[in-house]
Amino acid sequence: MTSRTCISERLRLPLISAVAVSVIALSGCSGGGDPQAGPTATAVVSPAQSASATPSATATPKPTPVYKPADAKGRAQNVPVPVKPALADKNTKEGLEAFTKYWFSLLNYGYETGDLTSWSALTGNSCAFCSNLKTSVSVGYRDGRWQVGGRLKTPSVQSKFKANSTSQQVVVQVIQEVTQYYKADKTVGRSPEPGTNTAVVVIAVHTKGKWSVPDMHLVR
Fold it and tell me: CATH class for domain 86-218?
């Protein structure tokens, strides 16, 4: 192959890139040497391949907050927020009793944290007994104060469910611990309230697909 022929062949090639043309010229027009003895190709590792070769870092899970009840040094910490059971919206005997237990768990949450927002949303303003409970909790947490104890248990919840009735009654046994009161400066507040074991009647109504409590009173 002459030099003129070599140049002519190169001119007919598509202009892909200067580097590609140079390689073709060297391999096709060189006067000697083994065409297979060119420079050794160097493997190029893409960033994706490099990343896949690097062991992925395992995220360290955050520790679960630990519940700590209130004591003489301060308020309760990381109090679990009550979760409403799906059954608690059903207009049935089982649904009513599940709701009542949930309602008292929200009240208990208020005694431990001072937050009765969710409980109040399910409680009617006409309930005088409920208003007294709300006031008591509000005073116990006012101006940096807090309460120790006072937690509630409801070992017995029995409804007198009547189908097609506009309101229902639930008889509940309520056990409450001794309640102690502390001021913001960590000194003892008013005298402690003794523990109680009482029975109450909860009046509940089911409207717009959920229960609420318009009234509650002690069993006489």
Answer: alpha beta
